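FYI - complex with protoporphyrin IX containing FE, inputs then prediction.
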Amino acid sequence: MMYMSLWSNPKNLNRKVRKVVKNTPSSSTVQGIILYIYTILPSRQHIRQIQLKIYLQTKKLLPNSDFALTTHWKMIEILLNLQLLAPFFLFLFLILPLLFFFSSSSFKNKDPVQPKDIVTIPKSYPLIGSYLALKRIGNRRIQWLSDIVQISPAATFTLRRPLGRIQVITGNPATVEHILKTRFSNYQKGYSFINPLSDFLGTGIFNADGNTWKFQRQVASHEFNTKSLRKFVEQVVDAELSDRLLPIMALAAQQDRTLDFQDILQRFAFDNICKIAFGYDAEYLTPSVERSKFAVAYEEATEISSKRFREMFPLVWKVKRALNIGSEKRLRMAVREVHEFAKNIVREKKRELKEKETLESVDMLSRFLTSGHSDEDFVTDIVISFILAGKDTTSAALTWFFWLLSKNRRVEKEIVKEIMDKSEAPVYDEVKHMVYTHAALCESMRLYPPVPMDSKEAVDDDVLPDGTVVKKGMLVTYHVYAMGRLESIWGEDWAEFKPERWLEKVESGKWKFVGKDSFTYPVFQAGPRMCLGKDMAFMQMQSMVAGILRRFTVVPTVAEGVEPNFISFLSSQMEGGFPVKIIERETSN
Ligand code: HEM
């Protein structure tokens, strides 16, 4: 309030502003608007006054604190920035009524989902691009963009975003190959992806380009491919399954309780990946244990960081971050918690390594440390990135998998038949031979990919194979969800959940898995940056499916005919959770 009253005194307008207003050739209304904008912003003179006040007051309260000085200088920076932002506020002031008019009048009360035959490329307006259409679509953006891909020539179209940002969206395998492999170095994650995640992920593999990425990729791929890591992952999954997940499901079945299965699968994946990444048991799935502080902080950091991508004007979150308010304040606290926790584990392991010259644990962090990568920031960032990569992807895949099984009991029967042929806790070699289950998982991720859209930023001008011109700085997005639904790739029956499209009968009468090339099915991305955890993910998912379906049937409690909504933040989710009942299978005992 104090600041507002200082700022809004018209006498404080500096000479420059008076000149701007005087020289504005347009009507007095426009002059009035400019005058108003400048009056609500601080003049440099008042910034100085406010600086002084803040400085004196903080000094008085905390005479010996460095924090006082830091805060003081931060405030100076923010206030100066606010003054520099005057044209931006002016812009907002002029266009907001326009936006309000469009969104509140003729566009209201229309069915947000248009039938496929009248899907069109959205209209674009100066400055705001297709913002109105994007806003109207709300949380069905993925499906809507997918519908547009389906009707676009060469399955590619150009979306104009607010403030002149242009995004090419494609479902064309040739273009996917072009951006992910042929011209790999021209299509990077870029500033618009890296910047919103950098507070949380630092320069970890998931959030790096160029040499920083290349080095981590080399180090990590070596570790991912070891037999001993596979064995370790197998043990971790088995333990989490038999000691935690199955008892929870058995109890729910016995008590006829409804479970949010999406939440359960996410907790399972979190425990699992923490154990594999840095040997820590987060105990996130165990209902009796107080929720792990680390897990809660990690979830919060992921959620707020991913919401930064949704902000139409990134400046909004940047100002909030500079002021350390609201969600940005919570993010800062969560990130500090995650980083401190991870660094403590790193330090403990380093101490152990120094004392014993070897580490007993075989998790990824221990492997990096024993192979000589001891820089604290480097290993912390890479481990935090691994957790993000492995945390919600397998759970997203399995949530939709169990949903599809509930609609396709024939497929479930086939899977159960395959499982019953294996031992109760199948080892890696057995899991590897569960081809029908593997095909069913691929088929489920075709329709509901855990990462439904992925964008790259053009480093330089380029032309895509279909002739689309790409300018430096533009985003090129491959739409995985749309690609799984293209008739040109999957045929007329693309909407059917049919694991058999991934299988071939061989002479012995057994199934043989027939994969698709990774540019046609880029669920795990493709090219040099393809997912490092693909094999690990399949092993985990197949073991879980085997463990669960051997004993239980998962029955959704949603009303007949209701389709859950597919949404996505960094990875996909079922909107509102996945409520299910667990039924003990009669054949088990
Ligand atoms: C069904 C499960 C999974 C799916 C569908 C999946 C998909 C993907 C996709 C699409 C990317 C590229 C993301 C991008 O560059 O923007 C990726 C990268 C990555 N994934 Fe996975 N992932 C899965 C599970 C896992 C697991 C369990 C791990 C284990 C840690 C993992 C580790 C990684 C890593 C380290 C990267 C970064 C690779 C790089 O940038 O070089 N993923 N994954």
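The pocket of protoporphyrin IX containing FE is lined by residues 205-206, 217, 386, 389-390, 393-394, 397, 450-451, 454, 523-525, 529, 531-533, 536-537 (CB under 6 Å). The two ends are 69 Å apart (CA to CA).
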